[in-house]
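Trying the structure run again after the queue cleared.
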Amino acid sequence: MYGPLLQGCATVLYEGKPVGTPDAGAFWRVIQEYNVKTLFAAPTAIRAIKTDDPHGSMPKAHNLGMLKAVFLAGERCDPDTLRWVEDILNVPAVDHWWQTELGWPGIGNQLGLGFIKSRHGACASAVCGYALEVLNDHGEKVPNGVMGNLVIKLPLPPGTLPTLYNNTQKFIETYLKPNPGYYTTGDAGFIDDDGYVHIMARCDDVINTAGHRLSTGAIEEVLLDHPDVAECAVIGVHDTLKGEVAVGFVTLVKGARIDKALLCQELVLRVRDTIGPVAFFKKVRVVTALPKTRSGKILRGTMKKIANGEPYTITPTIEDPTIFDYLAPEIRSLVSS
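Done. Tokens:
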């Protein structure tokens, strides 16, 4: 917020769903009316628009000539969503990462300093002020391409959170103590040989299947690549033999006519072909909707607790408080099947 204001830039805040108000063109109307130059949105919002308008007819019906870039953040962005934005809007789609605790982006494409070519599924690089590394569970640095725990070398740059309100000890225990000398982000990912940072999932969402560490984000990436899949959530479920196994839930794009059973078979085969048999991905179900917060984040943690028979509470920021009345039985049914 402060950066644009210090430069004298206006910021337009849009509250509400990006679709159904009355259609999937709400963002484009706002951009046209206020001559918006840069759009910041959650990938979930773009996927919701893409679900209702898969061919991108609505953006073409508006004058979006002022739009220069779209930044996507708040959750991991899948390659298919990035490609859709680039193809339909013909502007750079920047997948960037930060946390509330950081106060400003830690990884991304600093367009003002020169555009770094996009690599779908990855953020471009660490921004100025951040030294990122990937460590294993023993606190040791891992080679490029190996997934581990994303950390930031201390000291953190100005503007980041120095403590927690009235709870400095919790700040130390949560962020600084797990990996001395580093701020622990709680995210899992890897850095490739070219320095691109791949955020794959929250560390809690990395599952261990028969001794193999698997990213739910990597599996979701495969599911979202199917042309009939609009959104998805992959969670880890307790398994007596393998420790944990991944199960998936998907929603369909508007107008999809594929048989649901056939789609599930195709998705299982796609994961096996792309990631391999080690993923042990055998259960996926088509649902009408996924649980989200009002900012668009999918409540995978709550879904996982339901699947594992654990107590759960519904966050007050949930978009539809009644969704688990429908979804909880679907989750339990898939897991027990």
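The chain has a mean pLDDT of 91. Worth checking whether this holds up in the mutant runs.
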